[in-house]
Every structure is written in structure tokens, then in C-alpha cells.
Amino acid sequence: MADTPSFETVSYDDPAPHVARITMNRPKARNAQDLAMTYDLNAAFDLAARDEDVKVIVLAGADPHFSAGHDLSGDGGKTWRDFPMVGTWGGFDPAGAEGRFARESEIYQGMTERWRNLPKPTIAAVQGKCIAGGLMLAWACDIIIAADDAEFRDPVLEMGVCGVEFFAHPWEVGPRKAKEWLFTADWLTAEAARQLGMVNQVVPRDGLMPAVLEMAERIARKPAFALKLTKQAVNQSQDSMGRPAAMAQSFALHQLCHSHNMQVHGIPVDPGGLPEGMRGRFTKRKSDEAAE
Ligand code: ZN
User: For residue range 71-110, what is the model confidence (pLDDT) as tens digits?
Assistant: First the structure.
């Protein structure tokens, strides 16, 4: 690999032959995903995908937690104009559902789908908490190896929204467990997630990265083109079962929830379900204030 590139919110290195590792590096924010991290992740994934020497990509989160989800406190004063958009839907400025649909299509549903379809095997190394949008980051990867302290949760229903934007729950844990998990907003332990098929392996916390790199190195010894085509074949098998259409429908319902909450509560989520300390920070967008 050439010079190690630098990003603001993620680190990038090559910890083993033909293996690239992308590490979310906002530990104080529990690796919450804001605009900057979204576009850093996308650039890092693209770099690894286009590097002919890289055959396997690892996604990790700086300790102590894999990811607390989307950063509900905002984007540090930055807007979509500060980043290289990937989709063509449009900017995030329009008031009401239009701007929100554009934003969530681009940075949540669109990016996660794009990373899910990167043409190289990806392995998520998950430790600690993996919440809501954090699930999307793990699910985008082909293989999930979890530390024994990892816990998974989507509490978005408590905020008056029908699950996260990338609605893979039924595909990841099966429809009946998905309903229970979403309705109760309970934690799913690493071992329960493994038994349901969402997680490949559970290992001791201090053995997480060694286990991930051991598997990455074994995969990286296989022929690159066959790996790409095998990933494509599995993804297309799942997609031919209707996954993309089902997830597009779920995304539309998710947007309906945001619009409903805007009408009833004046913000895109039900404030009753927001974490303590977050209620005052979740404010209206300027475009929505101007539209009133
Ligand atoms: Zn949303």
C-alpha cells in the first residue's frame, strides 16, 4: 500500500497482507455517525475497494463501543455542501419531507446499500454497544465477528419511528424475532445474535481483532475475482428474494414516521423516546423553521 491516507474521523491501515482496516475513530462520541464520518467511511471504503492489493476490508470501531448510531447532536456546523455527494437525488435544504428524504436517501439508506455491495469481502469487528445506525454499519459487512460483550439494539421505535433507515432486521434475524426485538427495543446479546445467524462468531473481547485478522488473512489467500463473484452471487440470491423492494418500502414508511412526528411534535422523532439529555439538542432544521 502507498502512503497511509488520513481522514478526520476514521483511521486506515493495513494490519495484514492484502487486508485493509477502517477504524471509526470518534470514541468520545461512541463512534456516532455524523456527516463527516459518513463521507470519511465512504472515501475509505472506496480507497480499499480500488486498491488492487487489498482483498479483504475490516470495519472496526475505536474502543469502548463499536457505534452508538447516528449522531443526533448534529453535524458540527457542517452541511451536505461540505462533502462529496454520491447520489443524485438532490441537496438536503428543502423544507419538510423533501430535504429529509434527500438526506436519508443519501447518507443512510444509499450509503449503507453502497457499502453492502462493495465488491470485496468485508468483516465487521463489533465490541460494546452497537445501536440503531450502528447496526446498519455492521450489517453492511459480509461477516460480523463480535466480542462477547457486544450488544445490539434498535430503539428507534421508542422515538416514534419504525426502525432504522436500512431496514434489514427481518433479513438478519428472521421476521418473528425481528418483531419481538423491535417491539420491545430490547438488547440482543452477541451470543443470541450468533444463534439467530446475524453474527458469525463470538470471541473474548481481547481476542476480537486477532480473530478478525485471522479470518481476514485466510480469506485474503483466496483468488480475488472468485471472492468478488461469490459475494455478488450471495448478495444477488438475497436480492432475488425481494430484499431491495422490501427495504425501499420500509424506507418510505420510515419517512412517513418522520413527517408524522414533524406534524405532531415539531421535530422528526417523538421526544418521549429520546435519550436523556438529548431532547433540548434535537432541534428543527433551519429550512423547516423558515417554512412555518
Ligand atoms: Zn430517519
Answer: 888 888 999 999 999 999 989 999 999 999 999 999 999 9
Q: Is the dihedral of CA 31, 34, 36, 38 positive or negative?
A: positive
Give the DSSP H or E segment for 147: strand 143-147
Q: Is the peptide bond before 64 cis (omega within 30 degrees of 0)?
A: yes
Cα-to-centroid distance, 225 and ligand 1 (Å): 36
Strands 201-203 and 143-147, by their bridges, are parallel
Report the separation in Å between the CA atom of 101 and the middle of ligand 1, taken as the mean of its atom positions: 8
CA of 44 to the centre of ligand 1 (A): 24
Measured CA to CA, the distance from residue 190 to residue 197 in angstroms comes to 11
Q: Which three cell numbers stand for residue 207?
A: 481476542
Q: How many CB atoms lie within 10 A of CB 60?
A: 23
17: three-class secondary structure by DSSP: coil
Which tens digits make up the pLDDT trace of 190-236? 999 999 999 999 999 999 999 999 999 999 999 999 999 999 999 99
125 CB-side CA count, 13 A: 26
Q: How far apart are CA 143 and CA 212, in angstroms?
A: 9
Q: Which residues surround ligand 1, an ion (CB under 5 A)?
A: 104
CA-CA distances (angstroms) from residue 144 to 89, 122, 178, 181, 274? Answer: 31, 9, 18, 19, 28
> What are the structural domains, with CATH classification, of the chain?
10-291 (3.90.226.10)
Residue-wise burial string across 98-128, b where 16 or more C-beta atoms lie within 10 A, e elsewhere: ebbbbbbbbbbbbbbbebbebebbbbbbbbb
